[in-house]
């Protein structure tokens, strides 16, 4: 059984250490925790009266795991979703906040379980996901992963600076696409040619 703690630890490992990419709207980030998150949580780690890049650098592995478990799993009620879906939604919530839930809520309409798209896992959304999973099983998990992938492509379509996260300099699948496909069955991974066709419009 994959526990929330294990999922959080895997996310921290996947996110890596400190980065401050000017093209990333998240700003300074460590283990996937952004400076905006630290400010929202009031985590002045160096106790100097403000929360800046220095605080991001001081963030520990255990700090990040605790933040993810509390603010990106428990509080958004990811635990109310079917267990096979939790890892992908949790990972996406870390990456995209409440958009992770909106993606799922929009997807439910395709499984004849429409709900309000508000980015929150409430009783109605949780029940609808449970019913959809009972009907579709692992296909729902794959469908969510594919919807994640499409979400990343859509961002890159609109924002040139974000394309480096979806496509490598060599022209292959970038980190965003690989991240989404970690939660998709291999049979639904894009072939290299399909990927090239999808990004051919990008300059």
What value does the Rg take, in angstroms? Answer: 17 Å
Mean pLDDT: 94
N- to C-terminal distance: 44 Å
Main sheet strand line-up: 1-2
Q: Strand fraction band? A: under 5%
Q: How many β-strand stretches?
A: 2
Spatial shape: globular
Please give the count of helices. 11
User: How is the biggest beta sheet arranged?
Assistant: 2 strands, antiparallel
Q: Give the fraction of residues assigned to helices.
A: 55-70%
SSE series? HEEHHHHHHHHHH
Q: Structural class given helices, strands, pairing?
A: mainly alpha
Poorly predicted regions: none
Q: Give the total of domains.
A: 2
Would you write up a description of this structure?
With 203 residues, this protein is mainly alpha-helical. The chain has two domains: 1-75, no CATH class; 82-203, no CATH class. It is built from eleven helices and two strands. The protein has a two-stranded antiparallel ribbon with strand order 1-2.
Short précis:
The chain is 58% helix and 2% strand.
Observed structural traits:
single chain, 203 residues, mainly alpha, two-stranded antiparallel sheet, 11 helices, 2 strands, 58% helix, globular
Topology of helices and strands:
Layout: H1 4-15, E1 29-30, E2 33-34, H2 35-41, H3 53-58, H4 61-74, H5 83-96, H6 99-108, H7 123-136, H8 138-158, H9 163-166, H10 175-181, H11 192-199
Antiparallel strand pairs: 1-2
Helix pairs in contact: 1-4, 1-5, 5-6, 5-8, 6-8, 8-10
């Amino acid at each position: 059984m994959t526990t929330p703690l294990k999922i959080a630890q895997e996310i921290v490992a996947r996110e890596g250490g400190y980065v401050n990419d000017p093209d990333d709207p998240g700003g300074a980030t460590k283990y996937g925790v952004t400076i905006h998150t630290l400010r929202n949580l009031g985590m002045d780690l160096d106790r100097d009266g403000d929360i800046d890049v220095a605080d991001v650098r001081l963030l520990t592995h255990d700090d990040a795991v605790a933040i993810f478990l509390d603010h990106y799993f428990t509080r958004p009620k990811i635990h109310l979703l079917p267990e096979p879906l939790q890892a992908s939604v949790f990972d996406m919530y870390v990456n995209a906040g409440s958009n992770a839930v909106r993606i799922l809520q929009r997807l439910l309409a395709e499984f004849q379980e429409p709900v309000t798209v508000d980015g929150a896992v409430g009783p109605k959304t949780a029940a609808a996901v449970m019913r959809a999973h009972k009907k579709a099983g692992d296909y729902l998990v794959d469908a969510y992963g594919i919807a994640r992938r499409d979400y990343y492509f859509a961002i890159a379509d609109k924002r040139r600076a974000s394309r480096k996260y979806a496509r490598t300099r060599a022209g292959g699948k970038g980190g965003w696409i690989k991240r989404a496909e970690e939660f998709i069955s291999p049979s639904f991974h894009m072939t290299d040619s399909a990927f090239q066709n999808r990004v051919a419009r990008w300059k």
